C-alpha cells in the first residue's frame, strides 16, 4: 500500500472491537450490500468477504511498515465539546472521509483498493464502539482499570471483546440474531450513514458506558449494556453497507 504513504501521520497504540465484533459488522454489511456494490466488491476481493477482511487493519499494526496507522482507529471529543478534528487526538474521522473519496476515484492500484477498502470496513466498525470516540483523558477507557468476573482488565477491553465474546455466538449467528424482526422499512432507515452522526452517537453513550460503580463488573453490567452494545454492532453493519453502496453505485 505504498501509495498511501503520502497520508501517513505518526500514531499511538489503541485497539478496536475484538475480532468477533468486527466480523459481525462485516457480515451484516455484506448481507445488505446493493447488487451493484456486491458485484464490484466481489470482483475486487475474489474469495474474501467483508467479515474476513474486517480485522486486517488491526492485524497489520504489528508490522513495522504499518506502525503509522495506530491512531487511524479512533477520534477524540472532549467533554462538553464538539468534534474539532484530529488535533484533539486520533485520525479516524479524517481517514474514513479520505478513504471513501479515494475509493470513489480510479487512481489506486488493485492492491491499494483492497487495503483502503479493508480500512474503511474496520474504521467504520471502530467508530461505532463508544470508547473509540474518546474523551481525551483515559486512552478510550484503556486506563480505567476494572475487574471482569474477578479478572483484572480495563473498560476498553470489556467493550472491545469481553461482553461480545461472553454471548458465545459465532459472528454469523450474532449477525443473524441482531437482524431478527427487522422490516424492510427498518432496514431502509438503518441504511443511511452520516459519519458525524454515528460518531456523536458513540460519544453520547459515555455516561452509560462509564457507569461502573467501584469497577467490579459482571452480570449487572452486561444486563445494563447489552442493548447498547448490540445497537452499536447492528448500526455499524448497516452504516458500513450504506457507505459501500454509495461508493460502489
Overview of this structure, please?
By secondary structure, this protein is mainly alpha-helical. It has a single domain (8-247), classed as Orthogonal Bundle (P1 Nuclease), CATH 1.10.575.10. Helix content is 53%, strand content 6%. It has helices at 19-30, 35-45, 50-53, 56-59, 92-103, 110-126, 155-166, 171-179, 184-190, 195-204, 206-209, 219-247; strands spanning 75-76, 133-134, 145-148, 151-154, 216-217. It is globular and about 50 Å long. Residues 1-14 have low confidence and may be disordered.
Helix content: 40-55%
* Mean pLDDT reading: 93
Q: Report Rg.
A: 17 Å
Apparent shape: globular
CATH topology: P1 Nuclease
Give unreliable regions as ranges. 1-14
- Count of structural domains: 1
CATH 2nd-level architecture: Orthogonal Bundle
Class based on secondary structure composition and strand pairing: mainly alpha
How many strands appear in the DSSP assignment? Answer: 5
CATH superfamily: P1 Nuclease
Give a short overview.
The chain is mostly helical and 249 residues long.
Q: Could you give the topology of this structure?
A:
Layout: H1 19-30, H2 35-45, H3 50-53, H4 56-59, E1 75-76, H5 92-103, H6 110-126, E2 133-134, E3 145-148, E4 151-154, H7 155-166, H8 171-179, H9 184-190, H10 195-204, H11 206-209, E5 216-217, H12 219-247
Parallel strand pairs: 1-2, 3-5
Antiparallel strand pairs: 3-4
Helix pairs in contact: 1-6, 1-8, 1-12, 5-6, 6-12
Amino acid at each position: 500500500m505504498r501509495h498511501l504513504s503520502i497520508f501517513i501521520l505518526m500514531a499511538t497504540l489503541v485497539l478496536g472491537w475484538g475480532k468477533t465484533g468486527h466480523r459481525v459488522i462485516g457480515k451484516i454489511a455484506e448481507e445488505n450490500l446493493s447488487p451493484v456494490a456486491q458485484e464490484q466488491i466481489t470482483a475486487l476481493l475474489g474469495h474474501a468477504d467483508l467479515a474476513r477482511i474486517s480485522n486486517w487493519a488491526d492485524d497489520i499494526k504489528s508490522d513495522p511498515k504499518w506502525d503509522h496507522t495506530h491512531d487511524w482507529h479512533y477520534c477524540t471529543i472532549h467533554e462538553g465539546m464538539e468534534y474539532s478534528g484530529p488535533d484533539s487526538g486520533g485520525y479516524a474521522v479524517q481517514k474514513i472521509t479520505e478513504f471513501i473519496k479515494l475509493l470513489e476515484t480510479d487512481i489506486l492500484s488493485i492492491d491499494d483498493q483492497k487495503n483502503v477498502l479493508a480500512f474503511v470496513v474496520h474504521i467504520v466498525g471502530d467508530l461505532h464502539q463508544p470508547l473509540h470516540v474518546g474523551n481525551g483523558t483515559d486512552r478510550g477507557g484503556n486506563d480505567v482499570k476494572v475487574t471482569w468476573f474477578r479478572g483484572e482488565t480495563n473498560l476498553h477491553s470489556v467493550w472491545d471483546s469481553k461482553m461480545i465474546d461472553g454471548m458465545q455466538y459465532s459472528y454469523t449467528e450474532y449477525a443473524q440474531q441482531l437482524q431478527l424482526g427487522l422490516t424492510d422499512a427498518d432496514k431502509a432507515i438503518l441504511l443511511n450513514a452520516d459519519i458525524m452522526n454515528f460518531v456523536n452517537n458513540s460519544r453520547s453513550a459515555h455516561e452509560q458506558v462509564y457507569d461502573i460503580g467501584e469497577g467490579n463488573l459482571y452480570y449487572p453490567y452486561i444486563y445494563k449494556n447489552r442493548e447498547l452494545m448490540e445497537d452499536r454492532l447492528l448500526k455499524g453493519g448497516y452504516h458500513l453497507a450504506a457507505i459501500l453502496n454509495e461508493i460502489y453505485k
